[in-house]
Amino acid sequence: MSAQIIDGKKISDEIREEIRRETAALKERGVQPGLAVVLVGEDPASQVYVRNKAKACEDLGFYSEVHRLPAETSQSELLGMIDRLNRQGNINGILVQLPLPKHIEEKAVIDAISVEKDVDGFHPVSVGNLMIGDDSLLPCTPAGVIELLKRTGQSPSGKHAVVIGRSNIVGKPVSMLLLRENATVTMTHSRTPDLPKVARQADILVVAVGVAKLVKRDWVKPGAVVIDVGMNRLPDGKLCGDVDFGDAAEAAGWITPVPGGVGPMTITMLMSNTLKAAKRANGIDR
Ligand SMILES: Nc1nc(=O)c2c([nH]1)NC[C@@H]1CN(c3ccc(C(=O)N[C@@H](CCC(=O)O)C(=O)O)cc3)C=[N+]21
């Protein structure tokens, strides 16, 4: 293996230390960032993520509330809870864990969250702000990808970035952020002809498709940076990314592992957004 591993856990810990310090300073001024996490239903994977988010809050000195609602909760009950959290002064960020049960319309729920408290960056106004370049709360996983690149000394500026996957939560927003960082961006997806050939042109390859081990060494330009956003649960219970790590690492210059790459950054960016929202709510500039 020739590639250097991008240690998302370590970089994430460094950023958390910065957030912890800033939070302590804010507390001196009587401000404590507060996050509300809402979970509908009992999906086991979601339970784990929600627990990790609450743990991160505690670790950084944030106030947090976790609302666990039964799977049968109606859409109007959930909207009622969001309305209360929107008006609750000690809450700066609201995260409704996705996916939601089928009888609840995700769009109605996302639209109901106040833009100032939209720490996921999923609200249409946040998405629009991202597109225009206004300073909104950025979606956590895409923001984490950019942070990983910058803190590894691999600034996207002037590079050719190829993004595989066009989802609203990763592919599209990460492409927009890369563009904002002055990369030349190619967006690809399942209908792109000869995907390996396009991928091979990338200086920075970001993969977010949800297909385990799709990307092999012949998809990777020698020396390229490979960022794996995939999170696939294998039959044996192990987590694995969209990149065949062992194989792609033979060609890549830098590569993120799964777990321990993008995942830890997602939660850290959520904390960073909550801190930012708390500062804004209290008229404190960064
Ligand atoms: N409204 C909403 N916002 C989200 O941000 C959101 C969501 N819904 N629904 C579910 C997905 C998933 N997600 C993860 C975050 C961190 C890890 C993470 O830290 N992963 C660790 C490993 C965890 C493990 O071992 O299971 C890692 O990659 O190293 C994983 C998954 C946030 N999501």
Automatic annotation (TrEMBL):
Residues 6-120 form the Tetrahydrofolate dehydrogenase/cyclohydrolase catalytic domain. Keywords: Amino-acid biosynthesis, Histidine biosynthesis, Hydrolase, Methionine biosynthesis, Multifunctional enzyme, NADP, One-carbon metabolism, Oxidoreductase, Purine biosynthesis. Its EC number is 1.5.1.5, 3.5.4.9. One of its GO terms (cellular component) is cytosol. Gene3D superfamilies: Leucine Dehydrogenase, chain A, domain 1, NAD(P)-binding Rossmann-like Domain. Residues 139-281 form the Tetrahydrofolate dehydrogenase/cyclohydrolase NAD(P)-binding domain. One of its GO terms (biological process) is purine nucleotide biosynthetic process. The keyword Amino-acid biosynthesis applies. GO terms for molecular function: methenyltetrahydrofolate cyclohydrolase activity; methylenetetrahydrofolate dehydrogenase (NADP+) activity. It holds the Pfam family THF_DHG_CYH. It catalyses: (6R)-5,10-methylene-5,6,7,8-tetrahydrofolate + NADP(+) = (6R)-5,10-methenyltetrahydrofolate + NADPH; (6R)-5,10-methenyltetrahydrofolate + H2O = (6R)-10-formyltetrahydrofolate + H(+). Catalyzes the oxidation of 5,10-methylenetetrahydrofolate to 5,10-methenyltetrahydrofolate and then the hydrolysis of 5,10-methenyltetrahydrofolate to 10-formyltetrahydrofolate. HAMAP family: THF_DHG_CYH (MF_01576). Homodimer. Belongs to the tetrahydrofolate dehydrogenase/cyclohydrolase family. This is Bifunctional protein FolD.
